[in-house]
Amino acid sequence: MAGNDLDLDDMMNNNDNFNNEDNQNNNSPAGPSVWIFGYGSLCWYPGFEYDKCITGYVRGYVRRFWQGNTTHRGTHEKPGRVATLVEEKDGITWGCAFQVSGTLALDYLRQRECTLGGYLTDYIKFFPRLASEHSGISGEAFPALVYIATPKNDLWIGEEPIVETARQIAQCSGPSGHNVEYLVRLAVFMREELPGASDEHLFELEGLVRRFVAEANLSIGALLGSTPRRIRRDSHENVRRHVSFEFTSRVPEKRLRCLHI
After folding, report:
1. Which is the catalytic residue, given 113, 181, 193, 206?
2. If pLDDT is split at 50, 70 and 90, which confidence band does 237 have?
3. What mean pLDDT do residues 96-125 have?
4. Catalytic residue status for 113
């Protein structure tokens, strides 16, 4: 994927080394594992079993709601809007990485993200937010599998006025629930798990959607559905810590003003 300075072969080799060290540290009999980067609904509803979940970011991309959805958060008549990654030289996208072993999670995600969602897979450099000598997580970047939509798929919406995107989200729902839930729970994840960093596109959308929902005399709570199971992230840290300059300093200086995650 353009924008990363580590090629795919290096990523795979580094991932094998990272996973082997991690498995040795945990005496895991499961064999090699893989890390998956989540930046959309995976952040609050992975839907699969995982070994670890850690927060962090990727560089060279921004999150945009430019992908249509007709199988989860919309219909063919009224496609919803879901997130994808779009290349931007100095961009940064925060989310979380899940470590999984075996094939069950990957088979599930292939159906959820690729077959039904129209996403492709690739590897991307993931930077952990925290490091711990006891966790097997060094704080250095490592490759993670990512699901990403491109203009080549039939569900691609592309750039549109953000007011139009917000209006569609406020009006659409699908088999997995209302499109508002997808957006709002992602925004809540960002505020609660990564306070101090920012995603202007996400939060501007959330503000507009909340306004449209209120104007329609609807309740946000009624559109959110049941509360998902709490995800234990960064379980190797003893005390919850805010995103600090220690981590945001890795981002080019001119981007620091945008880190409101």
Report:
1. 113
2. low
3. 92
4. yes
d(Cα 22, Cα 25) in Å, to the nearest integer? 5
- pTM of the shown model: 0.78
As a whole number of angstroms, the distance between CA 48 and CA 161 comes to 34
| Residues 48, 34 contacting (CB under 8 angstroms) | no
Q: What does the pLDDT look like over 162-221, one tens digit per residue?
A: 999 999 999 999 999 999 999 999 999 999 999 887 899 999 999 999 999 999 999 999
